[in-house]
Amino acid sequence: MKILVVDDEPQIRRLLGVALKRAGHEVAEAGDAASALRLARTERPAAILLDLGLPDRDGIELIPLLKADGEAALIILSARDATDEKVAALDLGADDYVTKPFDSEELLARLRTAARHAGRRGEERLSAGEIMIDLAARRVERGGEEVHLTRKEFALLAELAAHPGRVLTHGQLLRTIWGPAHEKDIEYLRVVVRNLRQKLEEDAARPSLIVNDPGVGYRLAR
Amino acid sequence: MLSEGAARLREGEDVVVGVVETHGRRETEALTRPFEIIPRRVSENHGRPLSEMDIDAILARAPQLVLVDELAHSNAPGSRHPKRWQDVEELLAAGIDVYSTINIQHVESLNDVVASFTRVRVRETVPDHVLEQAEIEIVDIPPDELIERLKDGKVYVPEEASRALSHFFSKSNLSALRELALRRAAQAVDAQMLDHLRAHALGGTFAGGERVLVAVSERPEAETLVRAAKRLADALRAPWTAIHVETGRSSGFGAAERERLARTLALAAQLGGGTASVPATDVVSGLAGYARDYRATQLVLGKSSRSWWFELRHGSVVDRIVRSAEGIAVHVLPVAGQVAAGRPARRNWREGLEARPFLWSLVMVAVTVACAVGLRQLLDLNNVAMLFLLPVLAAAGRFGLRPGLFAGLISALAYNFFLLPPLYTLSISNPENVIAFFVLLIVAVVTSQLAARMRAQAELANRSARQNAALAGFAQRIADAANPDELAQAICGEIARLFNVHAMLFVPSPAGAALVAAIPVEHRPDQLDLAAANWTLEKGKPAGRGSDTLTASDWLFQPIAKGDRTLAALAVAHVEPDGAAIRSDELPLLLSLAHQSALAMDRMQLAEAMRELDVVRSRDRLRAALLSSVGHDLRTPLTTIRSAIGELGQSALAPAEAAIVDALDGEVERLDRFVGNLLDMARAQAGAITLAIEPIDLTDAVASAVHAVRKTLDGHDILLDIPPELPMVRADPQLLHHVLINLLDNAGRYAHPGTPVRIGARRGPDGLWLAIRDEGPGLPEGKETAVFETFTRFDGSDRARGGTGLGLAIARDFAAAMEVDIRAERCTDPQGARFTLSWPDRLVVRIDPEALA
């Protein structure tokens, strides 16, 4: 898998290169926005690791450009730990967001998940632990037994299942399931998530299926 | 009042007695026994001790309800307010309910009516607006019973007044007063019902669009008109205004007339009406013009008390108004001249008599006679007569009506004496010459009247021009000021110059009124002045001489206010002590200058605030830039180091090397947390936290936080006790995350190995709490608050393990930013510490289940 690393710090580029090559990936490097855009077009990478602090342009602006260019999974690397920036990046189409400093193993795991699902919808059927979700048949099973879900619960689960492993922001989920008028009504989302956990999680107090990213959104863990 | 108050006291309310007159009667005294009585303030006046309600003591005591007897009472000289009802208003403004009592004859708008049948004018009155705010309860006793009680001495009547009042308490008077009281109460109920109707749009009939205008003059009867207009306006539920038309005549007013006029207008303002002073050449045109502009529908006038002779010549004012005011109902009220009406006019007439203009007129006529006698030989006699028009015109034009008439008269006489045959007698031989004589006289009268009117108009125009010039000059001078000090100096200087007064300007400061400018510059306010300045700044109302508060001051304090903000207090005083601070006819100009000053001061303050804001903003920008760059510059090398260590860990290492890499990894993580904490701390202390409050499920928040500090919590069981149906809370997700991380990190670090960390949450009676309980050494006694201080680690105890000393301080600051209470407790059995976050009830989310189906 070819991966484009965009970061203005040569040290970080070099170390990321080492880690990625060890994991068996090909690596291309860019130090600024202009070369990042050029390489994204010529190298056709399967995934891009993008630092938001670039010398010539704000990384946030690159997100839609890189997404429009191809199927590459896009993971944001940033030293800025601000929730609104995370939300903005994800809303613009980034597949994941990793805050510096990060653990290389965790980064590789997130990279794998993102690359697997980037650019295509999730499978029709998927299972996580003892949960099996059949999107086409609108059927959810837990340990082989059907679980009855309300319309909103199913809609939310289906939306998360369509992008497994990826964080969907509160805004994205509310827009899709409740409509644009309810974009800010996070409490609706919270209640439905809570109900879903009651029905699906092994221990609703320690959710392992529907995972919260504080202030950003939810993702379906696999 | 007392029994009602006692009932409230029994209901558990905090009721005190402000002032109750028992008049030594045991019956009443017994009633006051259950109450706490605020002692009266005793002052000395001409050696006589006077006791008054101690308003400051009541304000300091701040009860729920205070009982204040005799609302209409006049306070002793030197009290804060001249009247007790003003004290009561201040108590009400301070949020203290007041029960009070008033006899019906003390109601201001009923003053005339009461006087008309009792023949006693009550001096102590309470403005109607005070009663309009109040819930009225009538204490009704049939007249016979009251008279009975009077005879038995059960009603207090001062000894010396009893004989004079025996007439007052006749059965017919009491019946009439009783009717008045009942009617007034009915009116109040009616008004409340109308308010209710209007508020609830229940429909119903009430007059709309009515406006009442009452014309007032300097005469004493004008107050009667004002009260009548108030009653009419009340009945129509209409706004009303008292207007005085300033004609040339007004400029001839003496101090007494001006004083009376100002009092009449003040009465109108006190009764809730508007006031206006309109300059015009004559009353009719001024009144009709204003009535049109004001869109008055009702006009109240007093029946003119001018002589039939004046009305014959000029037509009655009333008639002309009725003719010129179309579509307006005109009410003409008979006003009995109580105080010698017409007198002031005569005095004016005398005052106007100065000798000099008459002497000059005489001289001019003499010169004319000399010329005429000289020309007599050359000209026809009738043409010579024309010469006499010159001194008449000159005298009338230069000196006004009376010298003009005087010149006309002596011209006619001189013409007759010196020129008409037979010469040197006042008899006239030729009948034609008789006509010439009278023509001269008539021409003299007419021209002098014309000239006088022109002069009056010119004077009026001059006066408005002077006022406009004063305003324009004032605006320009205060616009030139570059800073607040200069502005204050300019305002004081201009006011002092324009009105020929002393002036001071005060602005509010944390320590009360602060003097910022004075003319003369060395003048300093005394205690009383400062008290009045404070009053004006606080209440936005005038104080001092000529107002109705703190009247003992030599100064009149006017608020300089924009909207409901009082920006400053302007004080003016006559250059001579004891003079009125300012002539009442100059007051409107002073008020408009105060208004202009307010605009200028407001603009200045805005500019200052903008400048300060700019400084703060650029400081904030700098700080934010610094924080983000420090964050970035520290994190980038950390990232590299961490990745490098990660890579090392992946390669095959000897056990010793692996241990080193492990240690490096742990230390880098600690350094990273420390950098994060430092940045958080800097953000919190700089007040640079921006909140993004949203509803949060504590299950989510706890799960994320536990996940984030899983390494520190390694070796401890996490026992969760968060009910699934627990309501959500409002908080900033990121800040709450940091609070929880720091609390959990603290617990993980101090708990004895192998002990569980418990996290529980519950809905409480007035909110919701979340607690984190560890089993460790706990907290030293008495250090439950200190534990949140920056860099606090308890030396000598176990609480010194690898923490940064910042975590709990950050938790406290972030919790405070979200208005969440945070508390630490020592626990025993087993020993340990508990940290509790409490959300107040208003931050607990209630959800409409409908939206979730």
From TrEMBL, chain A:
Residues annotated as domain OmpR/PhoB-type: 123-222
A Pfam family it matches: Response_reg
GO cellular component terms, A-Z: cytosol; protein-DNA complex
Residue ranges the UniProt entry marks as DNA-binding: 123-222
Keywords attached to this entry: DNA-binding, Phosphoprotein
Record has Ribosomal protein as a keyword: no
Keyword Calcium in record: no
Any single biological process term in GO: regulation of DNA-templated transcription
PROSITE patterns, per the entry: OMPR_PHOB, RESPONSE_REGULATORY
4-aspartylphosphate sites (modified residues): D51
Listed GO MF terms: phosphorelay response regulator activity; transcription cis-regulatory region binding
InterPro entries (alphabetical): CheY-like_superfamily, OmpR/PhoB-type_DNA-bd, Sig_transdc_resp-reg_receiver, WalR-like, WH-like_DNA-bd_sf
Domain of life: Bacteria
UniProt domain Response regulatory: residue ranges: 2-115
PANTHER family to which the protein is assigned, alphabetical: KDP OPERON TRANSCRIPTIONAL REGULATORY PROTEIN KDPE, REGULATOR OF RPOS
Protein's recorded name: Two-component system, OmpR family, KDP operon response regulator KdpE
Protein's organism: Rhizorhabdus histidinilytica
TrEMBL record, chain B:
SUPFAM superfamilies: Adenine nucleotide alpha hydrolases-like, ATPase domain of HSP90 chaperone/DNA topoisomerase II/histidine kinase, GAF domain-like, Homodimeric domain of signal transducing histidine kinase
Entries under Pfam families matching the protein: DUF4118, HATPase_c, HisKA, KdpD, Usp
Topology class, membrane: Multi-pass membrane protein
Top EC category: transferase
InterPro entries with a match to the protein in the record: GAF-like_dom_sf (IPR029016), HATPase_C_sf (IPR036890), HATPase_dom (IPR003594), His_kinase_dom (IPR005467), HisK_dim/P_dom (IPR003661), HisK_dim/P_sf (IPR036097), Histidine_kinase_KdpD (IPR052023), KdpD_sf (IPR038318)
EC annotation from Swiss-Prot or TrEMBL: 2.7.13.3
Transmembrane segments: 357-375, 381-399, 406-428, 434-452
Organism domain of life: Bacteria
GO cellular component terms attached to this protein's record: plasma membrane
Record's subcellular location: Membrane
Keywords associated with the record: ATP-binding, Kinase, Membrane, Nucleotide-binding, Phosphoprotein, Transferase, Transmembrane, Transmembrane helix, Two-component regulatory system
Protein name (Swiss-Prot/TrEMBL): histidine kinase
Species this protein is from: Rhizorhabdus histidinilytica
Lineage: Bacteria, Pseudomonadati, Pseudomonadota, Alphaproteobacteria, Sphingomonadales
